[in-house]
Amino acid sequence: MTTTTPVLSARGLVKTYGKVVGLDGVDLDLFPGEVLAIIGDNGAGKSTLIKCLTGAVEPDAGEIRLDGAPVHFRRPQDARKAGIETVYQTLAVAPALDIAANLYLGRERHRPGPLGSVLRMIDKKGMRRDAEKALTDLGIGTLQNMSQAVETLSGGQRQAVAVARAAAFGSKVIVLDEPTAALGVRESQQVLRMIDQVRSRGLPVILISHNMPHVFEVADRIHIQRLGRGAGVITPRSHTMPEAVAIMTGATTLTETPGQT
Ligand SMILES: Nc1ncnc2c1ncn2[C@@H]1O[C@H](COP(=O)(O)OP(=O)(O)OP(=O)(O)O)[C@@H](O)[C@H]1O
Ligand SMILES: [Mg+2]
Predict the structure, then answer these.
(1) How does pLDDT run across 180-237, given as a tens digit for each residue?
(2) CATH of domain 33-58+73-96+163-249
(3) Residue ranges per domain, the chain?
(4) pTM, entire model
(5) Keyword annotations for this protein (predicted)?
(6) In whole numbers, what is the pLDDT of the chain averaged over residues?
(7) Which one of 19, 86, 110, 163 has the lowest number of neighbouring Cβ atoms within 10 Å?
(8) Where does residue 228 fall: left (phi above 0), alpha (psi -120 to 50 degrees), or beta otherwise?
(9) Is the Cβ atom of 147 under 6 angstroms away from ligand 1?
(10) Strand, helix or coil at 208?
């Protein structure tokens, strides 16, 4: 038997908000180069789960490992430094800034020499050049002008910028919470293609989505979250969409519907 170390793993994660149980002992494994979808009804704990994994929330109990070593993220920057890039459900772009500035938000690059080191001048040209390359690498042809303000972009293009930022800087794991929720068909397909691109580079992706066709199109495995607990892990081959939804809503369980092997 071959055993692969998960890139990211969690055991027994618990997070309560006063009397509300967000997570009630959740396990998760993310393996190299896979797209792991997380599905579940509203309030099932999907966002809380990835917030624990990415330092936005500190779990009350449980263990998180990155490449097999225990980690304790106290803030999102800790996870980012460790190579985990996240696009949270509430989209974090700065509308008034341009595309390149958004890509480098919080990581602004300074000009070489004393202009940068002494005067702290931002290397706009270099950032635009590299931003363009990062987006082209991801197959986003529709964003040509890196100095365009993000507020003038369409919702899908904004989302593309947020996902591109994650893809450009994530070195270990990319986490996307509902990246296609507000998008049209064409824009959603673009984000799904980006996820494909990221995976083909060998980077694993965690994707939270309510959109079953999207999940079944792009995911290698699907973690089902129900009422703060993991209800099981399935694949697009082992189960149908209606079966996945039935497990998600509690109409059936993974034990009752074990699926095709
Ligand atoms: N900051 C908070 N304060 C209090 N309760 C919270 C907080 N964040 C989440 N919760 C509660 O924890 C539970 C899980 O919420 P979470 O946001 O993880 O759900 P979700 O699966 O992401 O739902 P959705 O599909 O609506 O995004 C819910 O009952 C929610 O009300
Ligand atoms: Mg959520």
Answers:
(1) 877 778 778 888 888 998 899 899 999 999 999 999 999 999 999 999 999 999 999 9
(2) 3.40.50.300
(3) 33-58+73-96+163-249, 98-148
(4) 0.87
(5) ATP-binding, Nucleotide-binding
(6) 88
(7) 19
(8) left
(9) no
(10) strand
